[in-house]
Amino acid sequence: MLAPAKLTVSLRITGVRDDGFHLIDAEMVSLDLADELVFDEGDGLEVIGATGLAVPADDDNLVRRALRLAGRTAHVRLTKRIPAGAGLGGGSADAAAVLRWAGIDDPGLAATLGADVPFCVRGGRARVTGIGEVLEPLGHVDRTFTLVTPPFGCSTPAVYRAWDDLGGPRPTPPARCRCSPGPAAPGSSRARSPARARSCAPSRPRVCQGWGPPSRLAPPWVH
Asked: Per the domain annotation, does 126 fall within a domain?
């Protein structure tokens, strides 16, 4: 079973709950960069090819936690292609793959494993709010993304702690796209130049990894 990476195209932190979870307003999309999970009889986890942060095959691994949440037992062979700690939801994608394998499609339940897990269960493209459990599906847009990941990882809790240490700056509205001409003055007309208009047009839904060929953005999951 494939576990596609997710890309957070935009992110605003809109608040913090009493339990410490951050409220977000984000656009997320699935990529065709994916881990692979093979389920067999037995009980265990084998991790192959991990890069970035360490990915221990212990009971704290999200694959094992998702199995416990689903009340299922299996031996899982996990081939990692998503760099750990790169902000691409690798662990969440793996947990989501387990939930799909187990037939679980409950965003609230998935969110108990992590804020990105509900989106990774559904996939495609969506506006994600709450702590990640509120999903608003968005239409597919043909785009290409180039991923540049450093040779180290950052844990999500550490990133949010750093944000909190800044004093919780108030979220600001997203900047207007420079290609948007904005409202025209009364009695006047304004046309976008073709060059600027093209820069706002959707591009092909692919992700370029390093110098390799671009790859397709994954379509929404079909259940």
From this structure: yes
Task: Please tell me the distance from the alpha carbon of residue 174 to that of residue 4, in angstroms, as a whole number.
Answer: 27
Domains in the chain: how many in total? 1
Collapsing DSSP to helix, strand or coil, 65 comes out as helix
Q: Give catalytic residue positions.
A: 6, 116
Judge contact between 125 and 204, C-beta under 8 A.
Answer: no
Residue 188 neighbours by CB under 8 Å, 6+ apart: none
Cα first-last separation, the chain: 13
To which H or E segment does residue 159 belong? Answer: helix 156-165
The strand pairing partners of 36, in sequence order, are 2, 79
| pLDDT one-digit tens code per residue, 104-153 | 999 999 999 998 999 999 999 999 999 999 999 999 999 889 988 877 77
The burial class, CB within 10 Å (0-12 / 13-18 / 19+), for 103 is exposed
CATH at residue 99: 3.30.230.10
Q: Supply the angle between the helices 90-101 and 62-70 in degrees, to the nearest 10.
A: 30
**Residue of 81, 157, 75 whose CA lies nearest to 116:** 157
pLDDT at position 216: 44
pTM of the model: 0.72
Domain range enclosing 58 = 2-159+193-216
DSSP string, 167-181: T-PPP-PPPPPTT--
Position 177 in a domain = no
Q: Which residues contact 215 (CB under 8 A, 6 or more apart)?
A: 31, 32, 33, 206, 207, 208, 209
